[in-house]
Amino acid sequence: MVEQAEAVTAGLLVIGDEILSGRTKDRNIGYIAEYLTALGIDLSEVRVVPDIEGEIVAALNALRARYTYVFTTGGIGPTHDDITADAVAKAFGVTIDVDPRARAMLLERIPEADLNEARLRMARIPAGAALVPNPVSKAPGFWIGNVIVMAGVPTIMQAMLDEVAPKLTTGVRMLSQTVPAHAKEGDIGGPLKEVALAHPGVTIGSYPFMAEDGRPNTNLVVRSRDPDQLAAAVAAVETMVARVRAGLSA
């Protein structure tokens, strides 16, 4: 893993009609976001597209031109609607065929007599791609250019992410600290804006929620890659919150 000073960014392309229809509830976006954040990679955009080649190609080309990495999930199984590999090959303008390396991986789990045409679809890899091992079910993902193609099944996707993580270039990790406001979001909105403007080197998010006692509350999350800037902003937020609460109780 190589760390660089500037930000490393990523886009995520979630592929599958079943996600858009609601038949399958996505469990990968949050996991990938947390995983990449821990590595020092900013997940900057997520798109969900159907199993339509043109839609996949267009989204993939847009994302790979914009971010350091693009991760995809879904559409690399054995059925006719698993078209991600073909779409990626088209996006990169390369051929695609059964890859001997991928076929050998399948044979570690599947007897050759059972390696039918459908299962061989999982060994079709765009020319020039590196394979991403799959320790769970052996059918590999692949990595071409800055695009990393992974399975949609969460356990398999997570194993593939573990395989590629050591090879990723990472940035300085984002630090964060949460300040409980013990106040409604509307009460601290104005003063919070002033704090944010005074600390341009940090980002401050406001997250309202209902407390256990049924009262509205707000968490303020301060983020920065610079520990000194983070500490200064947190102190300013805490001072602001104390001032607002004092005014509310007066």
Set down the secondary structure blueprint.
Layout: E1 2-4, E2 8-15, H1 17-21, H2 29-39, E3 41-49, H3 53-66, E4 69-73, H4 84-92, E5 96-98, H5 100-107, H6 117-120, E6 124-126, E7 130-132, E8 141-144, E9 147-150, H7 154-164, E10 169-171, E11 175-180, H8 185-198, E12 203-210, E13 216-224, H9 227-249
Parallel strand pairs: 1-10, 2-3, 2-4, 4-9
Antiparallel strand pairs: 5-6, 7-8, 8-9, 11-13, 12-13
Helix pairs in contact: 3-4, 8-9
Mean pLDDT: 94
Shape: elongated
Give the N-terminus to C-terminus distance in angstroms.
54 Å
- H/I helix tally: 9
Largest sheet: 6 strands, mixed
**What percentage of residues falls in helices of 4 or more residues?**
25-40%
What's the Cα radius of gyration?
23 Å
Classify the secondary structure makeup into a structural class.
alpha/beta
Number of strands: 13
Strand order of the largest sheet: 3-2-4-9-8-7
**Which strand-content bin applies to the residues?**
25-35%
Parts with pLDDT < 50 across at least 5 consecutive residues: none
Q: Give me the strand/helix succession.
A: EEHHEHEHEHHEEEEHEEHEEH
Q: In words, what does this structure look like?
A:
Helix 3 crosses helix 4 (84-92) and helix 8 packs antiparallel against helix 9. The model has no long low-confidence stretch (mean pLDDT 94). The longest helix is centred in the last third of the chain and has 23 residues, at 227-249. Helices cover 40% and strands 27% of the residues. With 250 residues, it is α/β, with parallel strands linked by helices. The strands form four sheets. Strands 3-2-4-9-8-7 form a six-stranded mixed beta sheet, with helices on both faces. The protein has a three-stranded antiparallel beta sheet with strand order 11-13-12, with helices on one face. A hairpin with a 5-residue loop joins strand 12 and strand 13 (216-224). The N and C termini lie far apart (54 Å). The chain contains nine helices and 13 strands.
